[in-house]
Amino acid sequence: MDWAFPSSRTVVSSDTDDVLLRRVGALTHVDDPDRIQAYRELLKTKEPVDNGVNRLYASMLYYSFWPSEGPGLEQGIEMIRSRPRVVEEILRLLEFLHIESRVNPQPLPGSLGMTPLRSHSRYSREELLAGLGLGTLDKGSPGSIREGVKWLPSMRTDALMVTLKKSEADYSPTTMYRDFAINQDAFHWESQSTTSSASPTGRRYIEHEALGTSVVLFVRRAKTGDIGTEPYTCLGTVRFDHSTGSRPMQIVWKLDREMPVELFLAAKAAA
């Protein structure tokens, strides 16, 4: 659902509160201390959203509430800040998530270290795309992306978003890709059915290290889980190992950081 609001001058405060409060549940997967602290600071300060990493964090928070259409980044953050009930509810949730967090997140290597994303942390599709600059550094809206791949030019990064357990109700025959773990540091991934090994996209996958581009792998068990839409776990950057076939390409990626054991077992079972 898109959370597009009329002008704040025409919205009854309690109605806006209720709509925003219903969307707070979109943050229940947040699990890394840096993001929790950044969201807290964004909510507590009156300072405008700056142009550094905080802007990417602000974008991640904003698109969690307005995935596709909304009032705009600065106005959206101000709208949330201006609602004491909403801020209190988010801060209470963040405090609980901070206490419960058991992940060991690490910054992504190289130039991606400037992003808010952390390996082994969980993200909604909107958060991970916003964290890689979609909606701020690159034009577009994270909520409008439905494919499992996205090239982010400003970050010179390919984001690969994998759902292990695919339902025929949610995926067409051409998108039932064979994605699974080979071991904890190798992952078999199938490209889109239209991608050939000789295409610009296929060559970028194969030659990404020589070209100076990055590939980041995000994996989730299924489309929906216990808390609704299941978030993706960021497995971090991966390197091309080898490929076979074309339209689609069968690629084996080598992970720069071993995937968590629990997720590895689920990803291996997908084979």
Describe what this molecule looks like in 3D.
The chain is of the alpha+beta class. The protein has two domains: about 90 residues, no CATH class; about 150 residues, Roll (PUA domain-like), CATH 2.30.280. It has nine helices and twelve strands. The longest helix has 17 residues. The N terminus is likely disordered.
Task: Give the topology.
Elements: H1 13-23, H2 33-44, H3 53-65, H4 73-81, H5 84-100, E1 106-107, E2 118-119, E3 122-123, H6 125-131, E4 149-152, E5 157-165, E6 180-183, E7 186-190, H7 200-206, H8 208-211, E8 214-222, E9 224-225, E10 228-229, E11 232-244, E12 250-255, H9 261-269
Parallel strand pairs: 5-8
Antiparallel strand pairs: 1-2, 3-11, 4-5, 6-7, 7-12, 8-11, 9-10, 11-12
Helix pairs in contact: 2-3, 2-5, 3-6
> Which oligomerization state do the chains in this entry correspond to?
single chain
Regions with little confidence, pLDDT below 50 for 5+ residues: 1-12
Distance between the termini: 33 Å
Question: What is the name of the CATH topology of the largest domain?
Answer: PUA domain-like
Total number of beta strands: 12
Task: Describe the main β-sheet briefly.
Answer: 8 strands, mixed
Q: Total number of helical segments? A: 9
Residue fraction in strands = 15-25%
